[in-house]
Amino acid sequence: MAGDRAALEALLAQRLIVCVGPGGVGKTTTAAALGMAAALRGRATAVITADPSRRLKDALGLADLRSDPHPVDLGNGAGRFEALAIDTKRTFDRLIERVAANPAAAQRILANRLYRELSGELGGSAEYMAMEKLYELLAQGRYELIIVDTPPSADARALLAAPLRMTELLASQAVQFLKAPSSIITGSESSVMRLTLSTVLKALERWTGMTLLDELADFVGGFEHLIDGFRARAQAIDAALHTAQASFVLVTSAEVNTIEATLTFAAELREVGFPVAGTIANRVYDFPATARDTTRTAPALRKKLLANYADFAALSARDRSALARLDGSPAAPLLAVLPVLAEAPASLAGLRHVAELLAGTANAVALRRSRRGPSA
Asked: Which domains does the chain show, CATH number per domain?
């Protein structure tokens, strides 16, 4: 089973790759392997993971992975390769500093106790910050290729819609109402209700040590002046995801249900104008129907080996049949097939092996070195 090598080479020449797909198919590892394959071709590459389990650091052999790019040494002949994970709070703070009208306005928000408590937990903020980090890296111009490893498919939809959704929230009537939260009390229909609400709020203020209504108004009012900045960045992110230099890659296993879900998701992405390059199938069995000559093996052992091999050959036939759906699909053509490995890559060497299986990077580096001469 093989993918489209020319299409994969064209993919690695892009500026932005977004890896999407269901959970449990090795998407994070595949995204990192794509990044390494590009770097081994000499391209300056960054991989961003929004995966909450932070598995990327294990595949890269890193002790930790945060929102600042972490360099990964691939040796001579390779391009710069850096990896980072999303730190929602830190990225949110940086965003406030960038879009605020002046440093004083930024500090007003950053110093607000409600902001400090909620900035890492606001609905949709994690997804928004993943896209904000992408915007930041694109604007820096330090990388020839950026790869985004998204959460599983259901969350990936939220991630892609997050920039526009956040601006809609900030401009909503609910937020405008919170600018004057005392109206919660004054607008109550009865004096009993007003007294009850007032008592509850005063109790909360004593318990938390916060002047709740004032700080809520200050918190929301601070964001009012950032809406234009948020909106401009949201539009820039959305435009970057729709350009000809961007490609979406769906990662799947050879399970029939997973492939059907992959095809459905590919169609949804195309419907809203996202450029889908194709699919990478991971953890695929690929054994020939006939085993190698075992005539020199002891009869009892030979029988067991052939029985085991027959099971693997049957699994391979099943996977070939399932992947035929992708081979004939214009919506999500098969770019590459990665085999089942004896051990999941949990080190830099293991990930490099996956990159070589994915795109033949070892040969590419050897060829480049032979053209350049010995490396210093």
From this structure: 5-174+227-288+323-372 (3.40.50.300), 175-224 (no CATH)
